[in-house]
Design goal:
Elements: H1 4-13, E1 18-23, H2 24-35, H3 39-42, H4 53-63, E2 76-79, H5 81-101, E3 105-108, H6 112-128, E4 141-146, E5 149-158, E6 161-165, H7 184-195, E7 203-207, H8 208-216, E8 221-225, H9 230-237, E9 243-246, H10 257-266
Parallel strand pairs: 3-6, 3-7, 7-8, 8-9
Antiparallel strand pairs: 1-2, 4-5, 5-6
Helix pairs in contact: 4-9, 5-10, 6-10, 7-8
Protein name: Phosphatase
Organism: Streptomyces echinatus
């Protein structure tokens, strides 16, 4: 059995929490962009409060455990593993509630190279528990603004988890999907589900724009976020996102597998 102590040790050993690879410079840049209401940092959240860089730093210190000292401007950032464990417990609670209700669930990730396996493990367990894992708008095209300009992506599902692909990435041997912060894919998926008259998700699970976009539209949303993703934590603070787990979102995919075991155990589900 994976106890909290063993998971805490794992989180720190592989740098999912504790000192993480995300730098302080990256985090502070994201806070400045969010404060300026840059869509690249908002990723679907329309904040109600006056979130300046100082307020965001205070929020991230409270929710993640980053240093609250504004004079600390370079070097590695940090996530308090106790906060990660507490959020994983709350995350597992929402997963367990969805399983008990047999609720329809939508999974989506902007980090398919890293987090696909984590979400797929949860999707498998919820499907086995009687939940419908939704796959609306399969194959639909979505135009996403990237640093290279406007690019057409295709919405796809792998093991029940939504992701987007650029046409060039569909060649054999390419990565399983594109890294994306955009909330457009979840909006397209939810619009398609509503237009089809089928079930709408009672829970959206994911990261980046999948969580923020769904939460902003009034859907219950939970997910993972790094120290440079303030939008999810603002959404949580303002009540549009239910649970955010602070964790480095770009380590090896295998390092997230123990989190599946922990969440499913806490949710009283089996993998």
């Amino acid at each position: 059995m994976l106890t909290p102590d063993r998971l805490r040790a794992h989180l720190v050993a592989v740098r999912l929490a504790g000192v993480v690879a995300t730098t302080r410079e990256e985090s502070l840049r994201s806070y400045r962009l969010f404060a300026a209401r840059d869509p690249r940092a908002l990723i679907g959240i329309d904040p109600e409060g006056a979130w300046g860089p100082r307020e965001l730093l205070g929020l991230m210190a409270q929710r993640c455990g980053v240093s609250a000292d504004p004079r600390y401007t370079s070097g590695p950032d940090a996530i308090d593993p106790e906060r990660t464990l507490a959020a994983l417990d709350a995350f597992a609670g929402r997963i367990g509630e969805a399983a008990r209700r047999g609720a329809p669930v939508l999974f989506g990730t902007g980090h398919p190279q890293r987090l696909l396996g984590f979400y797929a493990g949860l999707a498998d367990a919820l499907s086995a528990a009687g939940c419908e894992v939704l796959t609306p708008a399969q194959g639909r095209c979505v135009d996403i603004l990237t640093r290279f300009g406007l690019r057409t992506h295709r919405l796809d599902y792998v093991r029940g988890v939504a992701l987007v692909r650029e046409p060039a990435s569909e060649r054999p041997g390419c990565e399983p999907g594109a890294h994306s912060h955009s909330p457009l894919p979840v909006r397209v998926a939810l619009d398609a589900a509503a237009a089809a008259g089928g079930p709408l998700p009672e829970l959206v699970v994911g990261d980046h724009g999948w969580v923020c976009g769904a939460g902003q539209l009034g859907f219950e949303a939970i997910g993972l976020a790094d120290t440079d993703d303030p939008a999810l934590f603002v959404g949580e603070a303002e009540g549009r996102v239910s649970v955010v787990v602070p964790v480095d979102d770009a380590v090896r995919s295998s390092y997230y597998l123990p989190l599946i075991r922990y969440v499913l155990n806490r949710a009283c589900l089996s993998q």
